[in-house]
Amino acid sequence: MADSATAQEFDILVLGGGSGGYAAALRAVQLGFTVGLVEKGKLGGTCLHNGCIPTKALLHSAELADHARDSAKYGVNVTLDSIDMNAVKAYKDGIVAGKFKGLSGLIKMKGITVIEGEGKLTGKDTVEVNGTTYTGKNIILATGSYSKTLPGLEIGGKVITSDEALEMTELPKKAVILGGGVIGVEFASVWKSFGVDVTIVEGLPSLVPNEDPSIIKVLERSFKKRGIKSNTGVFFEKVEQNDDGVVVTLADGKTFDGDLLLVAVGRGASTSGLGFEETGLTVDRGFVITDERCHTGVGNIYAVGDIVPGVQLAHRGFQQGIFVAEEIAGNNPAIVEDINIPKVTFCEPEIASVGLNQPQAEEKFGKENVETAEYNLAGNGKSSILGTSGIIKMVRQKDGPIVGMHMIGGRIGEQIGEAQLIVSWEAYPEDVAALIHAHPTQNEALGEAAMALAGRPLHG
C-alpha cells in the first residue's frame, strides 16, 4: 500500500466519512482496493455525532425518567427528584466518544487513508482537499445531510434545530416543535419525559404522515394521553422572538408560545459548493440523481446515503456504501430497494415499519387484492408486564406474500429484524404462523398477527 502521507492516488476515493462513506471504505479495502476517505469533521458523520446515537441516548434517559415516575405501580418506590441535563449530556457524549474511538481505530487498522478537510469534486476522477489534488479511479460521494429550515425561517437565538437541542444543558419549561415527523416526535417524546410542556405543529394532516394510518391513530392517541399537544393540518406562517421566548403564528392566525422553537422539518442534502454540477452531475433540489445502482451517469462517480433521494436513514447509506464497493468490484450485488428498508421511530411508544403500508398496497395491487390483520398488544403477556399497549399490523397481497409490517408499542423497534426478513423474503402468513415464537416475548405478537392473517387467529 502507498505511504499514507504521500498517497494521492487511490482505487476508490470516498467523499464523506459518515455511515455511507465509511461503510463503502471498509468494504472496499476488504475487497482489495486502496481507499482514500475525505472527511471535514469527525468520522461517523451525522448518525454518530448529532443524529441516531445521541438522540437514542437521550431517549434512554427519558425512558428511565418515565420508569421512575411510574415505578410505584410495579411495587418499587422510587421518586424522580430532577433531571440533571449536564449529567444526561455527559452520558450521551460518553457513548458517542466511545463509538467514535472504536470507529477511528477500525478505519486506521484496515489501512484506509483518512484525508482531513473539506473535499471538492474537481473532475471525473479528482477531488481537491486543502489545495491538494487526490485522484480516484472511482469516486463515491457520501456528503450527507444537514438540519433544514423553511424559507425565511432563520435559525438562531431561541429558534434551534436538533443540532442545538442535543447540546442543551438546560431544559425549557415550554417548547414548540415545528414538524411532526421522526425527529419532531422523538424530541417531543424526550422533552415530555423530562417534564417539558410540549406542542408539535405539523402542516400535514397528521403526525408521522409516512406511516400506516392505523399506526398514526395509535401514536396520536398515545401522545394525547401523555400530554403532548399537537396541532396538525395548518401550515406555519412565522415566528417572533422576544425576551420571554418565542411566539409561533400559523397560517390561520393561531399562535403558540414557548421558551424556544425546535425546527424539525427534515434534512437537506449537503451538496452545495462541492463542484458536483460543474462536473456534470444531475442535482435536483440539492439531491444527486443516480440510477438504481447508485451511479451518477458521469465517469466512475457514485453517490450514496442522504444525498440520494429516498429515505434518509443511516442504515440505508451504510447498505448503499457496501453495495457500491461491491459494484465497483464487479460482484453484481442485489439492489437496495427503499421500500424494504426497515424504519424505526424511537419515541414512546416506538414505531417500527417495513414494506408497503395499507394505502400503498391498495394503490399497487387494488383494494380488493389486499388483506390486513391487526394484533393488539393488549393480548401479549410481555407487553402487559412492560405496561405498554399498541398493535402489530400485517399487510398481505390476497393469497400472496406479506408486503408490509407496521408496529407500535414500547420497545417494539427491537422486533423489526424478523419483520424485515418476513417482508424481504416475501413470506406468506401461513409460513410465519408455522414458526415458533418464544413465550413470553413481544416477538410472539408477530406470530399471532400472522396466524390472524392466515385465517386462524388463536387469541383473537
TrEMBL record:
Positions annotated to bind FAD: K56, G119, T143, G144, S145, D306
Residue stretches making up the Pyridine nucleotide-disulphide oxidoreductase dimerisation domain: 341-450
Predominant subcellular localization, coarse grouping: cytoplasm
Cofactor: FAD
Location in or out of the cell: Cytoplasm
GO molecular function: dihydrolipoyl dehydrogenase (NADH) activity; flavin adenine dinucleotide binding
Catalytic activity: N(6)-[(R)-dihydrolipoyl]-L-lysyl-[protein] + NAD(+) = N(6)-[(R)-lipoyl]-L-lysyl-[protein] + NADH + H(+)
Organism domain of life: Bacteria
Binding residues annotated for NAD(+), in chain numbering: G179, G180, G181, V182, I183, G184, V185, E186, E202, G266
Cytoplasm found in the keyword field: yes
NCBIfam families, A to Z: lipoamide_DH
Name used for this protein in its record: Dihydrolipoyl dehydrogenase
